[in-house]
Design brief:
heterodimer, A: alpha/beta, nine-stranded parallel beta sheet, globular, B: Rossmann fold, 2 domains, six-stranded mixed beta sheet, disordered C terminus
Chain lengths: 267, 434
C-alpha cells in the first residue's frame, strides 16, 4: 500500500465520494478506444461522459482472454481501424482536454511490456490517464508495473472474483490504489441473461474488510435494472458490452447511458 | 514399468524460470491454479497415482517407445549416428498422449468430470478425447476453424471418441485463438472443469507439470542409449518446438546436468517461409519478450504488443509463443534454437519416408532436417537422438497437396510413397465436415 495517494487515486476517490454524497453508486461506463472508428470514438466517449462519474477506456488488444465476444469484436474492429496502444493514449489525451472526470485505461499487460513499462506509464501520464485496470495481472505477479504506475501518478485497479479466497481478496484489495474491481460472476465480460447479484454481496462483505478504496462491480451489468441491483451494494457500477452492443445495433448511446446512470441511484 | 516423476531445479516457487513464466491470468483462475498445483504436488508422490499412470503408459500407450538407429538416414547424412526416439509409436500417434492421460487422471482425482482442451494439429485434441473416453469424462475440444479444415480426420476422430469439437472463429481462427477460448471456458466453468493444457505453455503450474509428464521420453532415452551405446547421453538431441512439449520431454532430463555431461540440446523452430519473411512461427529467432496465455515468454508480437499471427506448414507448430522453460534454456545457453523452414521440413519428411519407411509428422520433420545437417557437422564419432514426436498420418493430405504443387517443377520426384499412404483423403474430408 502506497503511503501517499497518487494524483490519479485522489481524483478517483473524489469521484466516488461525489456520487456517494448524491446517493448514487458511481457510474463507470466502458468503451473500447477507436470503436466503432477512431473518428467516431470521441463523440461516443462524449456521450458516455455526459453521464459518467468515471470513464473506462479499453485498449484494443488482439488476444483479450478476459473479455467475451462483444468486446473482442470491438477490439478487432478498432485495431483494423488503426487504433493501437499509442493511438489509444492519444485519444484519451484528447478527451482529457474536454472533460474533467477521471479516465482509467483497461489494458492487458502485453502492450505495456511491448512499449516498455516506463515508457507506457510516461505516455499514460502525459495523456492525463488517472488509473489502469489490469485484467490479466494479479497483483503478486509483477510489482514493477504497480510501482511504475504510482511513480507516474497513476492509480491501479486489480480484480477479485467469486472464486477468490479470503487470502486472495486481502492481497488484491490491499494492492489496489484506485478502486477495487469485483467481477460479479465467474466468466468473461459480456451481457448475460438472468444476471443477478448472486455471490456479489458475500464477496463485497469480504472485500470491505480489507479494501481501503472504493469497490466497483462489473461483468454482466447491462441495463438500468441490473445497474440498480448492483448500486445497492457497490460503490461503483461498470457497464461495458451493453454500450458496444448499442453502437453495433445503431441505438442511441447517450440515451442508454442516461437510463443506466439513473439506475445507479440508491433506494 | 515403475514410474517416478522427476524433480527439477526450475521453476522457482512463483512459477518462474529465470524471468520467464508466471501466472498472467484473470484473478478468477488463480485459486484454481493454486488448487491444481496442490493436487499435482500431492499426486506426484502418491504411489496409487503413479502406479495407475505407469500401467496406462505401458499397457495403453505402449511405452517404452523404441529408440531406433536410423541406419539408412545415418548413411545418407554421412556423419554421426542418428537415433530416433519413436514417440510416433505411441497409441494415438504422438507424444501428446503421455501428458493427456496423466492430466485426465489428475482431473478424475480432483473430482472434475468435465475436461476441456485446445488443439492445433489435432493430436492433443485426439489424445485428450481418448483419455476422456478411457476415464469416462466429458470432453470439449476448442479448435480453430482454419485447423478444422486442415485436420479433418483428427476432428472426426475426436467426435468418434465422444468429444465435442467447438469451432473457434475469433481472431485468426488458429491455435492461439482456440487457446483463448479454452481459457475463457475455464474462467467461466472453473469450479467443475479441468483444463488439459497441451504444451509447456500457460500459467504455472502447467509448464512444469506438462514437462514432468513428458520427461518419460528423455528418461527412457537415458536407459535405452546406455544399452545401445554404453552411455546415457548422446552428443546432441534434436526436437521440434512449437509450444515445446516434446522437446522439453526429451531435453529436461539432461538440461540440469553439469555442462560437461550435457548433450547439445537443439530445438528446431518453424521458420515457415523464412524468419526474415515475417511468415514464420520462430518465437526465439523472430520474437521478443511478451505475455500470452498466462506466461512471460518469447512471443511474436509487434512494437505495440499486438500478437502477430504465426505461420508454419505444420499446424502443430503454428503458435506465436514458446514455453517459458525453453526461453530460460535459450537465455542461459542450455539449449540452442535453430530455424527450419517449411521447405526444409518437407525435405526432411520425404527423406525419412524414403530412407526408413517412416512417415513423420510435419512437426518432427523439422527436427529430422536439422539432424541430417548436424550429423555432418559432428562426424562419424557422434551420436544424435532425434525426438520423432509424432507420425505423419494426419499430414498426408496436406503433404500431397504441397508435393502436387512442387511436382510441376521438372526436378521433383514423384511422391509414390506419400500418395499411396494418403488414399484419397478428399472424400473422407467431405464426410467429416458434412
Amino acid at each position: 500500500m502506497t503511503a501517499t495517494l497518487t494524483r490519479g487515486a485522489e481524483r478517483l476517490h473524489a469521484a466516488f465520494a461525489r456520487a456517494q454524497a448524491e446517493g448514487r453508486a458511481a457510474f463507470i461506463p466502458f468503451m473500447t478506444a477507436g470503436y466503432p472508428t477512431a473518428e467516431a470514438f470521441p463523440a461516443v466517449a462524449d456521450a458516455l461522459l455526459s453521464q459518467a462519474d468515471i470513464l473506462e477506456v479499453g485498449l484494443p488488444y488482439s488476444d483479450p482472454l478476459g473479455d467475451g465476444p462483444t468486446i473482442q469484436r470491438a477490439s478487432e474492429q478498432a485495431l483494423a481501424g488503426g487504433t493501437s496502444t499509442r493511438r489509444t493514449l492519444e485519444l484519451v489525451g484528447a478527451l482529457r482536454q474536454r472533460h474533467d472526470q477521471p479516465i482509467v485505461v483497461m489494458t492487458y499487460v502485453n502492450p505495456i511490456y511491448a512499449v516498455g513499462p516506463r515508457e507506457f506509464m510516461r505516455l499514460a501520464q502525459e495523456a492525463g490517464v488517472d488509473g489502469l485496470i489490469l485484467p490479466d495481472l494479479p497483483p503478486d505477479q509483477d510489482i514493477e508495473i504497480a510501482d511504475l504506475a504510482a511513480e507516474h501518478g497513476l492509480a491501479v485497479t486489480f480484480l477479485i472474483a467469486p472464486t477468490s479466497t479470503p487470502e486472495r481478496v486481502r492481497l488484491v484489495a490491499e494492492a489496489c490504489t484506485g478502486f477495487l474491481y469485483a467481477v460479479s460472476v465467474t466468466g468473461v465480460t459480456g451481457a448475460r441473461e438472468g444476471a443477478a447479484l448472486g455471490e456479489v454481496p458475500a464477496m463485497l462483505a469480504l472485500a470491505r474488510q480489507h479494501a481501503r478504496v472504493p469497490i466497483a462491480v462489473g461483468f454482466g451489468v447491462k441495463d438500468r435494472q441490473t445497474a440498480h441491483q448492483v448500486a445497492q451494494v457497490a460503490d461503483g457500477v461498470v457497464v461495458g458490452s451493453a454500450f458496444i452492443n448499442a453502437i453495433a445495433g445503431g441505438q442511441d448511446v447517450a440515451a442508454l447511458a442516461a437510463d443506466i446512470a439513473a439506475g445507479c441511484r440508491r433506494d | 514399468m515403475s514410474l517416478t516423476l522427476p524433480t527439477y531445479p526450475q521453476p522457482d516457487a512463483r512459477g518462474r524460470y529465470g524471468r520467464f513464466g508466471g501466472r498472467y491470468v484473470p484473478e478468477t483462475l488463480i485459486p484454481a491454479l493454486d488448487e491444481l498445483e496442490q493436487a499435482y504436488n500431492a499426486a506426484k508422490t502418491d504411489p496409487e497415482f503413479l502406479n495407475e499412470l505407469a500401467r496406462l503408459l505401458t499397457d495403453f500407450v505402449g511405452r517404452p517407445s523404441g529408440l531406433y538407429l536410423a541406419q539408412r538416414l545415418t548413411d545418407h547424412a554421412g556423419g554421426a549416428k542418428i537415433y530416433l526416439k519413436r514417440e510416433d509409436q505411441n497409441y494415438t500417434g504422438a507424444h501428446k498422449i503421455n501428458n493427456c492421460l496423466a492430466q485426465a487422471l489428475l482431473a478424475r482425482r480432483m473430482g472434475k468430470r468435465r475436461v476441456i482442451a485446445e488443439t492445433g494439429a489435432g493430436q492433443h485434441g485426439v489424445a485428450s478425447a481418448t483419455a476422456a473416453a478411457l476415464l469416462g469424462l466429458e470432453c470439449i475440444v476448442y479448435m480453430g476453424a482454419e485447423d478444422i479444415r486442415r485436420q479433418a480426420m483428427n476432428v472426426f476422430r475426436m467426435k468418434l471418441l465422444g468429444a465435442e469439437v467447438r469451432e473457434v472463429t475469433s481472431g485468426t481462427s488458429t491455435l492461439k485463438d482456440a487457446t483463448n477460448e479454452a481459457i475463457r471456458d475455464w474462467v467461466t466453468n472453473v469450479r467443475d472443469t479441468f483444463y488439459i493444457l497441451g504444451s509447456v505453455v500457460g500459467p504455472h503450474p502447467y509448464p512444469a507439470m506438462v514437462r514432468d509428464f513428458q520427461s518419460v521420453i528423455g528418461e527412457e532415452v537415458k536407459v535405452q542409449l546406455q544399452d545401445l551405446e554404453g552411455r546415457a547421453a548422446p552428443d546432441a538431441i534434436v526436437a521440434c518446438v512449437g509450444g515445446g512439449s516434446n522437446a522439453i520431454g526429451i531435453f529436461a532430463p539432461y538440461a540440469y546436468l553439469p555442462p560437461a555431461q550435457r548433450p547439445r540440446l537443439i530445438g528446431t523452430e518453424a521458420a515457415g517461409e523464412g524468419v526474415d519473411s515475417g511468415k514464420h512461427a520462430a518465437s526465439v529467432a523472430g520474437g521478443r519478450i511478451g505475455v500470452l496465455h498466462g506466461s512471460l515468454m518469447y512471443l511474436l508480437n509487434d512494437a505495440e504488443g499486438q500478437i502477430v499471427p504465426p505461420h508454419s506448414i505444420s499446424a502443430g507448430l503454428d503458435y506465436p509463443g514458446i514455453g517459458p522453460e525453453h526461453c530460460y534454456y535459450s537465455e542461459t545457453g542450455v539449449a540452442e534454437y535453430v530455424p527450419v523452414t517449411d521447405a526444409q521440413a518437407l525435405e526432411g519428411l520425404q527423406l525419412l519416408t524414403r530412407l526408413e519407411g517412416i512417415i513423420p509428422a510435419l512437426e518432427s520433420a523439422h527436427a529430422i532436417y536439422h539432424a541430417v545437417q548436424l550429423a555432418r557437422e559432428l562426424g562419424p564419432e557422434g551420436v544424435i537422438v532425434v525426438n520423432l514426436s509424432g507420425r505423419g498420418d494426419k499430414d498426408v493430405a496436406e503433404v500431397m497437396r504441397l508435393l502436387d504443387l512442387e511436382a510441376q517443377s521438372p526436378e521433383a520426384q514423384s511422391p509414390e510413397a506419400l500418395s499411396s499412404a494418403a488414399q484419397s483423403p478428399e472424400p473422407q474430408r467431405e464426410e467429416v465436415t458434412a
